[in-house]
Each structure stands twice: as structure tokens, then as C-alpha cells.
Amino acid sequence: MTTNNLVLSGTITRSRRFKSPAGIAHSVMMLEHKSQRYEADMLRNVYVQIQVILSGPRFESVADDLKAGVEVQVKGFMTLQQGRNGQNRLVIHAENVELKT
């Protein structure tokens, strides 16, 4: 199976920009999502905090706007990333980002 699509909206809690050794521009942000969803006919509070990675020149035009407090909708795919401490975590690699505020 090869399906890996995700759409998630939320508020940026922090962000940073950098260039890789190969010169590729990257923006990394933490996205906080809060909502309510029905599950088994009961209303459930949903909370997610996940890292989003935006890579390449197509995001350079919006990178300055991606600051804490800004609401966005991200479309992309999920992948596993290993941190410096050896812990694995899921991250979103954005294919599109839309500012909501």
C-alpha cells in the first residue's frame, strides 16, 4: 500500500529556518491542533502537537509568515524521524501550506 496523505490545520507554536549543507532552504515548525471529533457516538477532545518540515524554494515566499501564533493548514505526508537522542517520532513533510489568518 502506498497511500500517505495528511491534511491538518492548527496554530504554529514555534518555527525556525535554516539551509542544509547542500544549500536547500528548510523551515521547521511545531503545529498545535485542537478540535472535537465524534468517536463511537461520543464527542472527544483531540489534541496533537507535531513537527512540520517545509523544504525547497517553493516555500520561501511564505517562510517569513510562518511564525508563532499563525494559523495554517498543511497538506503533506508523514514519515519517521530519529532525533539526536535516538528517539523516533512522526513528522509531517509539507507539500502545501495555506495561511489561515
From TrEMBL:
Which Gene3D superfamilies does UniProt cross-reference here? Nucleic acid-binding proteins
Keywords in UniProt for this one? DNA replication, DNA-binding, Primosome
Q: Which Pfam families match?
A: SSB_1
Single annotated GO MF: single-stranded DNA binding
Instruction: Tell me a GO biological process for this protein.
Output: DNA replication, synthesis of primer
Q: Name one GO cellular component term.
A: primosome complex
Family matches, as PROSITE patterns: SSB (PS50935)
Self-association and partners: Homodimer. Interacts with PriA and DnaT. Component of the replication restart primosome. Primosome assembly occurs via a 'hand-off' mechanism. PriA binds to replication forks, subsequently PriB then DnaT bind; DnaT then displaces ssDNA to generate the helicase loading substrate.
The family this protein is said to belong to: Belongs to the PriB family.
| Function recorded in the entry | Involved in the restart of stalled replication forks, which reloads the replicative helicase on sites other than the origin of replication; the PriA-PriB pathway is the major replication restart pathway. During primosome assembly it facilitates complex formation between PriA and DnaT on DNA; stabilizes PriA on DNA. Stimulates the DNA unwinding activity of PriA helicase.
Q: What is this protein called?
A: Replication restart protein PriB
